[in-house]
Specification:
mainly alpha, Growth Hormone, Chain: A, about 0% strand, globular
Length: about 425
């Protein structure tokens, strides 16, 4: 009788590991391309539609903050599920649920008040995404093997950022030409196709018996991940603190600021905003390629340098919005600096993901990755709400310059943390 438990190369050191692009890893990559493309188009179009309809930067930031909270809260639940339920089933169910959510939103649009409908849709969309990503991250070591983690993470990050490149460009063209509805149908088709494709995935799964109800099981699993990080990898807590602070002072400023700056401050078109966000996707792709090319030469001890360079790029955006700078010159500077920020943040993200995966046992990986993602992202909703208000009451150049200065101080203070993480070995 065929067993449901599939042994990995790590379980059997004498077995020969398959190449990186084996059948199942290739299916995972293709499914991510399709799913993330739909996600990128939708995340571009829905906030832009709200900004165009209301014209309020404060409301734009508040809705974004409210939508982001479920992602933070659902990431640990998704991580616990990824370690107890077949990861393929988690991905299939969540992609199918997203397609159904978009269909419901399309049917209610123009029939329900816009702001409550948008908040509800974005909250559910981010909640699903928060639960989805731990399943993907926990699948990578099982499909790629321990010796290919950096390359495998680079591939998944490049897929993510390639979708981030093409999604906003396509979304900008579609939104400018046809409005919101074609984007909804295209995104829904992407998620449905991804769910169908993921049905064919074979991801190694070792069933674990749940003790008690769902909440009891999730609470126990999260406590287990907390104890593992605190007792065996305490340096990860310091790294999470640095990244959470960086998200608060800089990432949140860019999430709110780039759409508001391009559309309202610089007076550019929807397709121009799509081009800027596409440049961010291209930056992520370039960051993944650079990480693969650098290989072992790129060390985590230099993580603070990547953060400091991202701060300088944000300062360049602030300078481009100073009084007297022509709008077109300011636009292209913001676009180029956005590209640079994404290059740097992608390189750091790949290194950190591989480090965590190497340090964590497979049976804890989903929970630990979700735990880290939740703590790192918990400050972003606060930052988005605050920056939405600042963008309406302060000059844009001053907001970005202040954010860049705070981020530079955070980067300077993180040097010892990254040295300690690198000194522990990977």
């Amino acid at each position: 009788m065929k067993t449901d438990v599939i042994k990995t190369a790590k379980d059997n050191p004498e077995s020969k590991e398959p190449p990186l692009f084996c059948r199942d890893f290739t299916l995972l990559v293709i499914g991510q391309i399709v799913s993330l493309s739909g996600n990128a188009i939708l995340r571009f179009a829905l906030p832009l539609y709200l900004l165009r309809q209301t014209g309020s930067a404060a409301l734009f930031g508040a809705v974004g903050a409210a939508a982001f909270l479920p992602a933070v809260l659902c990431a640990p639940i998704g991580g616990a599920a990824a370690d107890r339920v077949n990861k393929r089933n988690v991905m299939v169910a969540l992609d199918a649920a997203t397609a159904l959510l978009i269909l419901t939103f399309a049917l209610l649009l123009d029939r329900a008040p816009l702001v409550p409908l948008m908040i509800a849709c974005l909250m559910l969309l981010y909640a699903i995404a928060g639960a989805y990503q731990p399943a993907v991250q926990a699948s990578i070591p099982l499909l790629a093997g321990p010796d290919r983690l950096t390359r495998a993470n680079a591939v998944i990050n490049m897929v993510n950022t390639l979708s981030g490149l093409l999604g906003p460009v396509a979304g900008g063209v579609l939104f400018g030409a046809f409005g919101i509805r074609p984007i909804l149908w295209v995104s829904m088709g992407c998620f449905a196709a991804s769910a169908a494709m993921e049905l064919w995935l074979r991801i190694p799964h070792r069933p674990r018996r749940a003790e008690g109800g769902v909440l009891v099981t999730v609470g126990r699993d999260l406590g287990e991940s907390w104890r593992f990080v605190r007792r065996e990898q305490p340096v990860l807590l310091a790294v999470m603190g640095v990244l959470a602070l960086f998200n608060l002072v800089l990432s949140a400023a860019l999430i709110v600021g780039i759409p508001v700056t391009v559309i309202q401050t610089l007076g550019m078109s929807d397709s121009r905003l799509g081009l800027t966000q596409g440049a961010m996707g291209l930056g992520g792709l370039a960051g993944g390629l650079l990480t693969v090319w650098c290989g072992a030469r790129l060390r985590l001890r230099r993580g603070y340098v990547l953060l400091f360079a991202a701060s300088l790029a944000a300062a360049g955006m602030g300078a481009a919005l100073a009084p007297g700078v022509p709008p077109l010159a300011g636009y292209w500077t913001v676009t180029v600096m956005s590209f640079a920020v994404m290059v740097l943040s992608t390189m750091l993200g790949i290194l950190l993901s591989a480090a965590v995966q190497r340090r964590t046992p497979p049976e804890l990986l989903g929970k630990v990755m979700a735990f880290i993602m939740a703590l790192v992202n918990c400050a972003s909703p606060i930052g988005q709400a605050v920056y939405g208000v600042l963008w309406e009451g302060c000059p844009p150049w001053a907001v970005l310059t202040g954010a860049a200065a705070a981020a530079a101080l955070t980067a300077a203070g993180s040097r010892r943390v990254f040295h300690a993480l690198d000194a522990g070995g990977e």
